[in-house]
Amino acid sequence: MTLPTIEFPVDKIRLTPVYKNNDRLCTIKKSSFETNIPRKIIDGYGPIYFPKSHKDRPYIYSSMVLTLDGKSAFEDENKSSAISKGNYLDPDGGLADLWILNILRTYADGIIFGAKTLQVEENITGHIYDQELAEDRISILGKKEKIPWNIIVTRKGTGVPLDHIIFKNKEVPICIATSPEGFNNISHKLNREYLVLRDKYEAKNITQKRILDKNKIVFVVTGNGNKINLTHTLNIFRSMGIHRLLIESPTFMYVLMQEKKLDEAFMNYSGIYAGGEFTLGRNQAFSYKDFPATEILSIHIHRSSFLYTRQKIDYKKSSS
User: Fold this and answer.
1) Of 94, 96, 203, 320, which sits most exposed with the smallest number of CB within 10 A?
2) Which residue ranges make up each domain of the chain?
């Protein structure tokens, strides 16, 4: 099964920077192990760098597109693409939103989806749709594999659509991070072989090539019952060679913020209003005494109806 590609002409997706936190961005650049940036990224977005991973877990960043009133979907259409592509004032702004996601995938070693994401986005796969960036990932950024690990996080394992396209493509390296109960619920339903990792020592010799050659799926099983041990899971990811982890699950993004482990958020805003209940974190509220704050690293615009922000998450306890 051939993975789809999308054309991203630079003249359509080029963004205009309107704010840069130069001091903070320079600090990040100094701590990055990248020395070269793909030319298309420089031309369309500008130079972008990420810090090195933490010693015990990956460097973690998320990507979301929202309406100006903070909604992640319409009430009558729950795909996020309706928020980006649906902006009739600037259709190319939606293409630019997707391209930024491709940039973030290009730098990532793993991408996390939730079961709900797979249920809604039936054709999603975590590869790089921009063929030029997919090649630059190897030749310029020095990645060993063309496609990041596609990681599905599920506590109970009951909501994962095992007939999803992601399980049918042998080019996609798949990892399922779950609890012991979730493993029992999923493993016997798979029609593919699998490998189980329960600690970082088992993960050190795992390579994508070895897994893909044998058409296996990797399970990362931690915690007890139907609870995942997040710290343990992220430690195993790091041992698997996942230095940078991209989050594309809104629910898991908030889980990581509650655990003070999300490092950055790339939040894009389509200039439309949706109303309704689809708000990030609506069932994952913070206290006014202890909540994350953000330091804006950069803001870009596309024409006059899209905003693209890069935010550094800060977890210092509120003094209010």
Assistant:
1) 320
2) 10-63+94-259
